């Protein structure tokens, strides 16, 4: 049995994009569109968008699972300031994101949980607070960076 580099139809020919999302090798998402945002206008736009779907190809799910295992085994090291933000009502469990953020290496990592926010912080009704917080964090980080000299070498790129 050979591994497939892309989803193939049972007939062996390459499949169309539409077939990939309706194939037996695709996985239905457990979330509904309203779990991505609490803004009714955003949800209505999602429901009208024919390019959005409720299925992921099996390969995409495999890649996401492999990545989750890899970042759990190997903490990320960030030489520059990093802002990690996450809603507590989310597709990805907040406990796992919190654990990952706390395992990251560096003195300049900021993790901010947004209670009662969904997956797409920029599409929630409280997005103005998210944007204001992000802008404030960027301004503080830029002030911090002006006093720090960072040497860029091939080993830390």
TrEMBL record:
Name of protein: Serine aminopeptidase S33 domain-containing protein
SUPFAM superfamilies in the cross-refs: alpha/beta-Hydrolases
Species this protein is from: Didymodactylos carnosus
UniProt domain Serine aminopeptidase S33: residue ranges: 36-124
Pfam families membership: Hydrolase_4
